[in-house]
What we know:
By secondary structure, this protein is an alpha+beta fold. Helices cover about 25% and strands about 50% of the residues. The chain folds into two domains: about 5-40; about 40-175, Nucleoside Triphosphate Pyrophosphohydrolase, CATH 3.90.79.10.
Amino acid sequence: MSWTTRATRTVYENPWIHVREDQVTGPHGDGIYGVVRMQHPAVFVIALDDEDRICLVELERYTTGRSIEVPAGGSDGEDPLVAAQRELLEETGVTASDWQYLGRMNALNGIADALEHVYLARGLSMTDAAASQHEEGIDAVRWVPFAEALTLVADGEITDGETIAALAFAGIRLGRFR
Length: 178
């Protein structure tokens, strides 16, 4: 049996998210379902340098506290590649000459409509980004070998689900999980 939406109402909305409450009929009968829809897709960047190191950022998240993540952010209505290039520069001061689309994913698909795009950036160049990093809330930028990034996941240091998924996309594309 598929899901049927009998009624829907907006509960909250701002420039980034839209929250609605749906009256539904599903496999187990009637119920209420809360759905968060991101207003624009998000982007995630695996920046890989010539020494096989991944760029990670450290920041304090309001919801979960300290977090180690790949550079990421909202597309704000831009083309996802343009947004990925902007986010990488703003958060890390890094530009890339080679961009490869790794794939798409959905965040929290049990409660959210949140499309995300993942990119691999290579051919990296550093710029000065101290001012924009502060505006973005970035406390530190770290470069770690790809294998060490996976160890950070295994050891529970990286807990951000999208970062873990983006690393998996990159690992698969780079042949690291075969």
